[in-house]
């Protein structure tokens, strides 16, 4: 739970600072699953993914599709969010996903993903910790072991005509500490309660962990007019 809040809060701050149009073509999340932004974002949005394991949140209009073949017209959405998706995409398809996302965005794209070799090695260490404690690694961590993580350079050659801002998200040290705590059901439940009771305080706490060397980077791309 704290893990999800940590990666979504920087994206939510960006959305709040320059809100997308509050209609069906205002906001798209690629790789949303059944929750996505809707766990924290109250406005309407379109969520697309290969599957929806549970009923989608009420403010999402779900669309079943692949990120490298989005069924939308050029510049269909004011803002597109892609959070913790790129590391799950086979390396041969990553550039195609980026190209498709930029194609359907009118004004802004927000990518967030674990970045580079150090982040991958941290998750490999976490995976070993689960195994050493005879715990089943979560599915997302199993999938993280399949491919090397994308680098910051993934977006450099594909974003001509876009202004780029890079925000560090979760220092490596904090990431490991947080994920070790979430291996305990009691602590994970405690984080969930604190987040429900004082979300603003949790957000300020998490902001202090957004420093280099970081586990994840948030890339805010704004189309240049």
Q: How would you classify the helix and strand content by structural class? A: alpha/beta
CATH top-level class: Alpha Beta
- CATH fold name: Rossmann fold
- Coarse morphology: globular
Percent helix, as a range, is 25-40%
Topology (SSEs and partners):
Elements lengths: L1 H16 L9 E4 L14 E5 L10 E5 L12 E7 L7 H14 E10 L1 H17 L6 H6 L17 E10 H10 L3 H13 L1 H9 L6 E10 L2
Parallel strand pairs: 1-2, 1-4, 2-3, 4-5
Antiparallel strand pairs: 5-7, 6-7
Helix pairs in contact: 3-5, 6-7
Question: Could you please describe the fold and organization of this structure?
Answer:
- By secondary structure, the protein is an alpha/beta fold.
- It has one domain: Vaccinia Virus protein VP39 (Rossmann fold, 3-Layer(aba) Sandwich).
- The protein is built from seven helices and seven strands.
- The protein has a seven-stranded mixed sheet with strand order 3-2-1-4-5-7-6, with helices on both faces.
- α3 packs parallel to α5.
- The chain is globular.
- It starts with a helix and ends with a strand.
- The model has no long low-confidence stretch (mean pLDDT 92).
Briefly, what is this?
This protein is an alpha/beta fold and 225 residues long. It is 38% helix and 23% strand. It has a seven-stranded mixed beta sheet, with helices on both faces.
Notable characteristics:
single chain, 225 residues, alpha/beta, Rossmann fold, 7-stranded mixed sheet, 7 helices, 7 strands
């Amino acid at each position: 739970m704290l893990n999800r809040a940590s990666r979504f809060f920087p994206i939510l701050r960006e959305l709040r600072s320059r809100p997308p149009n509050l209609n069906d073509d205002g906001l798209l999340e690629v790789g949303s699953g059944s929750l996505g932004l809707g766990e924290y974002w109250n406005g309407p949005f379109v969520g697309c993914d290969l599957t929806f394991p549970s009923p989608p949140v009420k403010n999402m209009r779900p669309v079943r599709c692949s990120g490298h073949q989005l069924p939308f017209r050029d510049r269909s959405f004011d803002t597109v969010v892609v959070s913790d998706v790129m590391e799950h995409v086979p390396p041969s398809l990553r550039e195609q996903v980026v190209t498709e996302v930029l194609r359907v965005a009118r004004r802004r794209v927000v990518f967030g993903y674990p970045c580079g070799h150090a982040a991958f090695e941290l998750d490999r260490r976490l995976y070993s910790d689960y195994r050493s404690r005879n715990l089943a690694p979560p599915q997302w961590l199993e999938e993280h072991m399949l491919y090397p993580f994308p680098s910051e350079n993934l977006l450099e050659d594909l974003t001509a005509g876009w202004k780029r801002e890079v925000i560090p998200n979760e220092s490596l040290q904090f990431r490991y500490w947080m994920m070790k705590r979430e291996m305990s059901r009691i602590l994970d439940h405690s984080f969930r309660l604190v987040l429900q009771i004082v979300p603003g305080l949790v957000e300020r706490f998490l902001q202090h962990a957004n420093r280099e060397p970081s586990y994840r980077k948030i890339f805010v791309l704004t189309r240049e007019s």
